[in-house]
Amino acid sequence: MALPPLPPGQLPAASPPPATAMSNWRKDHLGASSVEPLPVVIIGNGPSGICLSYLLSGYTPYVKPDVAHPHPLLQRKLTEAPGVSVLDQDLDYLSEGLEGRCQSPVALLFDALLRPDTDFGGNMESVLTWKHQKERAIPHMVLGRNLPGGAWHSIEGSMVTLSQGQWMGLPDLQVKEWMCRRRRGLRNSRATAGDIAHYYRDYVTKKGLGHNFVSGAVVTAVEWGTPESSGSGVRHPGPLFQVSGFLTAEDQSRPPFSLCARNVVLATGTSDSPARLGIPGEALPFVHYELSALEAAVRAGTVSPASDPVLIVGAGLSAADAVLYARHYSIPAIHAFRRPVHDPGLVFNQLPKMLYPEYHKVHQMMREQSILSPSPYEGYRSLPEHQLLLLKEDRQAVFQDPKGLQKVFGVALVLVLIGSHPDLSFLPGAGANLAMDPDQPLSAKRNPIDVDPFTYQSTHQEGLYAVGPLVGDNFVRFVQGGALAVASSLLRKEARQPP
Ligand SMILES: Cc1cc2nc3c(=O)[nH]c(=O)nc-3n(C[C@H](O)[C@H](O)[C@H](O)COP(=O)(O)OP(=O)(O)OC[C@H]3O[C@@H](n4cnc5c(N)ncnc54)[C@H](O)[C@@H]3O)c2cc1C
């Protein structure tokens, strides 16, 4: 793998960046003299980026010859091309007719191959066997703000996953086995976020992918033009992308980098840019958007069982996690949300009670502990259908109730947990023109990036791909299908490259 030299004025500062991977990267590539662009740059090092790196590193999935898939139609199709890697097969044809908890046909296909009967409560092994065929590897680089594992390094480590632990795994390394080897156990078949973050880091190491990863690399701009000559005089059939940003260094310096690539994969997730309320006082220092702020305040003693309550805004699972956390430490909490408690759209109404008793407990608290009734849950008050209007410097929170009356509460800290938006500010026009509806804001749920369902290439820009929540695949179990589609498309493209 060779990278173009950095243009004059963009050489990184002399101070070494912190991560070992980064040092290796600089040593191996920044001094390279070739001007050939990199085939692929992946922006984002969460489960999507890791899974794609695995597939681009030559790890190739084949269907085991001696097993039958429980889905009869899929089984029949799988037997039609014995010995042909899934990556080289027609993903449109294979995935046709599959149904499940995701809209993407390729996500359903890959999930069905990795976890054949999991939705029927079964525990059948994957029908895939993996061969490491180095000759099929496509040189690539995975850039990420944090350590490999993406959002999982920002989620409070003691939180238990919503998904079953086995659904959090990446190809050919079962979470259960990995946990066993580390003498850790699943809790009610779910894992802690801390274990999962550790698993992803370990996966990169165990599969020998580390040299592709640059941790602490923040991309600030991706630009592209029409097909043009590279410095080597070789004409490239597609557009060339310029990916620039900075490395985070221990000494707080920010050495810049700039890479040239033939393909760019957006795997940046949607957790980096928390949704805001847009009310006066939101910028005050006691207003936060991550549960970790509550943890830090508990540790520092700025909130305690004797302090003013913590105000938790939101009615999703992150807000529920915050309620549980506050309850665990006996911290008084006011929980405000705009919807009525019986709204069928509330996430709690979509979770089976048996599997998620803790979230149903929170829902019960939300229902029973309205501000007007006496409390069975000491220290907790719920404010359904309340709108936060204003936060004052003296830590007064002003609400409007469903009848239009104003109420004021003194609070120690405010946690706004009302979701997050994708942050594609590094793209021209912040990527707005890539969305399904370019006139509406980009949103994982309502308006994802528009991609071809079988290649995950943008329908608007050749060579630009997107995976994960950015395209509406919101669970780790399903982001992997996007990686399969991208790898399959890139392998076809590479096969067409002139020698
Ligand atoms: C609180 C919480 C609980 C969840 N629970 C579950 C669960 O139980 N089960 C489940 O399946 N899913 C769960 N999810 C969703 C899951 O986290 C995502 O589906 C998954 O992490 C998506 O993977 P990804 O690789 O696409 O993106 P991410 O994991 O979000 O990783 C993307 C990475 O890219 C980095 N990045 C972004 N912009 C840049 C840039 N400009 N330069 C460099 N790096 C950048 C980000 O910092 C991030 O680290 C949960 C999410 C949250 C927030």
UniProtKB/TrEMBL annotation:
Q: Which InterPro entries match?
A: FAD/NAD-bd_sf, FAD/NAD-binding_dom, OSGIN1/2
User: Which SUPFAM superfamilies does the UniProt record give?
Assistant: FAD/NAD(P)-binding domain
- Identify the domain of life: Eukaryota
Describe the family membership recorded for this protein in Swiss-Prot or TrEMBL. Belongs to the OKL38 family.
Among Pfam families, the record links this protein to:
Pyr_redox_2
Its recorded name reads Oxidative stress-induced growth inhibitor 1
What PANTHER family does this protein map onto?
OXIDATIVE STRESS-INDUCED GROWTH INHIBITOR 1 (PTHR15192:SF15), PROTEIN CBG05349 (PTHR15192)
Cellular-component GO terms for this entry? midbody
Q: What terms describe the molecular function in GO for this protein?
A: growth factor activity; monooxygenase activity
Cofactor(s) recorded for this entry are: NADPH
The source organism is Neomonachus schauinslandi (Hawaiian monk seal)
